[in-house]
Design a protein that fits this description.
The structure is a homodimer of 250-residue chains. With 250 residues, chain A is an alpha/beta fold. Chain A contains 9 helices and 11 strands.
């Protein structure tokens, strides 16, 4: 789990930009989506930050994250309004100029009826110098990639379409395999034994996830590894622990 | 929106701790809950971070956040298993010792039947020196507060009970009032005018939130201010812009 990019490991951070998430007015749906998607293609999401629509905060977060991970993804703040300051902030973070991009302008011109590409809409064609565009099948106004940073929209349907568009361009890691074991027990009943299994199988990552349902506590144990044989052995060990503890309770 | 604690402003950051959120296996419910709750009581949530169950990452994030905000809240990693390392990490962040706390131990002893307070469960009584306990009405094992950092459980029902327990101890700011205006228009149709209203009313924060529903784009404009009169004036201005633009489209 070290931060170094060891062989086969591809890592990511996700920066969510938007006052509306921090005020609770909008409930974020992009974190769960991206987390699950990256895990499925073998990229480890290692950190998420949510920051407000304030230029210095965006610049600071992007520059804190991009040296440490293979990829950084952002969502939010690339629409046409005064509070959409992500593109300008990313340009500032990279220290490059930003202006209306001819490729982005052409996409918008082709999309809107003649005369409808207003000044506000043209803001969506502002792209930092040196960036590549990310296709937006839903509403056309593109995202962009600069360095290892992928800048996407905040509206979930558009963000998801952009993720689909960029995934073929990403280097993906060795996929992490996982198995889960459900225990009808509170996690404290099996915690010590699960810790021992973790020690015995250092090439696995074992998580213990308690749940409260109808006032009853149950636990899901998730075992993850890049190696299928080790995964199977560790899973069998967890299953044995859960079986024994369950029989003792019965 | 400056970071300084100006008169009446109370700010917060939220640190979510857990591999299961970053892998997408668990969808976070605590961010939306806490964001809405803090807004309601007049505390500005300014930043959220999600980090894995890795000691250095937790220490780094806590120490990065706590000097900058009135309060820091954390969720996750205070259960009985080997991957529950939040309490030890917080102690390390503050540079204080940690051990089984007599008050926390007494709570657990009173809760479990004789002989059931196992070594694993006793881990949940590990509290950094100098911390105060946070009551847990759901499953007893307490959270704690040290300095301006409030450490809570990750299971949403327990986390929510802990928030209820600590809110009476928090300093709260002047409540931010808000009004929203729904526009049956894509945000680009009104973006420039809304930006002008923002300029005219610097004591408001105006957000424009596009939505895609059934292939149609609509917009919600949210106007926020601590001053009720200014809020009413700015809202009326937004309503006039939306009305005019809607009539032009009709």
């Amino acid at each position: 789990m070290a931060e170094e990019q060891s062989d086969g490991e591809v890592t990511a951070a996700f920066l969510v930009i938007g006052d509306e998430i921090l005020s609770g007015r909008t409930k974020d749906k992009n974190i769960g989506f991206l987390a699950e998607y990256l895990t499925a293609i073998g990229i480890d999401l290692r950190e998420v930050r949510i920051v407000p629509d304030i230029r210095e905060k965006i610049v600071e977060a992007v520059n804190a994250l991009r040296p440490h991970y293979t990829y950084v993804f952002t969502s939010g703040g690339i629409g046409p309004t005064h509070d959409d300051i992500t593109a300008d902030s990313i340009a500032a973070a990279f220290g490059v100029p930003i202006d209306v991009d001819p490729r982005a302008r052409a996409i918008l011109e082709a999309h809107y009826p003649p005369g409808q590409l207003t000044e506000a809409r043209l803001r969506m064609a502002r792209i930092p110098q040196g960036a590549n565009l990310i296709e937006n099948k839903v509403s056309k106004a593109p995202g962009f990639r600069i360095g290892n940073v992928h800048v996407m929209a905040g509206v979930p349907s558009i963000m998801q379409a952009m993720v689909d568009a960029i995934v073929p361009t990403l280097k993906t890691g060795t996929k992490i395999l996982s198995r889960s074991v459900d225990a009808e027990l509170p996690e404290s009943r099996i915690a010590l034994q699960i810790g021992e299994i973790q020690d015995r199988f250092p090439q696995t990552m074992i998580g213990s996830y308690p749940r409260a349902q109808d006032g009853r506590f149950t636990t899901q144990i998730v075992i993850r590894s890049r190696d299928e044989t080790i995964l199977a052995e560790a899973t069998a060990a967890v299953e044995a622990v859960v079986r024994d503890a369950t029989n003792q309770s019965a």
